[in-house]
Amino acid sequence: MLLVVGGMIGLGKTSVAELLGEHFGTEVFYESVDNNPILPLFYTSSEEEIEKKRYPFLLQLHFLDTRFRSIKSALYHDNNVLDRSIYEDWYFAKVNNDLGRISDLEFQMYDRLLDNMMQELKELPKKAPDLMIYLKGSFETVLSRIMKRGRSYELDAQLEAYYRQLWEGYDEWVMSHYHASEVVVIDMDRYDVVSRREDALEVLALVESKLKMIRKK
């Protein structure tokens, strides 16, 4: 069983991944955040610095590298949880391309590299995740959760437009462009798995129910 946890920045992917890992007794492959040297630069640099240093493109390459390593390990061994996965990387790269933070040439290079990596995954013992747990929520909830977790480089008011553009297209991307596995949607306006144990148990029940349906097919 391979589960991937996806969704908008700030909605609690790591907390849900931890919850699932503990519940199913599986290893969790975490998103490369705390040990990521480019992420703070991506969030805090001026537009002039971004234009010169190409931080958005470098960040996407960093995530692509670390997520490819994670999903290869996860697909070799059964029973794993991925805190975000390589499948969502394309969406983040596309949004940054739409915003002009990644050039068309950089995006084309990225797209070819990702396609090459995805072809290699088809050669592994397991081909794809069993289920994506997609966390969705209102934009107000996204901003509130980002503020609550308090990563200083994420709190600049100028980032709100970037967060909004990501948020506005996320549901459509998952429902129309993600085809690697089935999806269960968790409404994070309703659930707080960190502060309320009953919410955590209900989320686990939703995932268990979806997995039972998949196994019956």
UniProtKB/TrEMBL annotation:
PANTHER family on file: DEOXYADENOSINE KINASE, DEOXYNUCLEOSIDE KINASE
Name this polypeptide is given: Deoxyadenosine kinase
Annotated active site: 83
The Deoxynucleoside kinase domain, residue ranges: 3-208
Assigned GO CC terms: cytoplasm
Keyword Nucleotide-binding attached: yes
InterPro entries xref list: DCK/DGK, Deoxyribonucleoside_kinase, DNK_dom, P-loop_NTPase
Entry's EC annotation: 2.7.1.76
Species in which this protein is naturally found: Cellulosilyticum lentocellum (strain ATCC 49066 / DSM 5427 / NCIMB 11756 / RHM5) (Clostridium lentocellum)
Domain of life: Bacteria
CDD domains per the UniProt record, alphabetical: dNK (cd01673)
Keyword entries, A-Z: ATP-binding, Kinase, Nucleotide-binding, Transferase
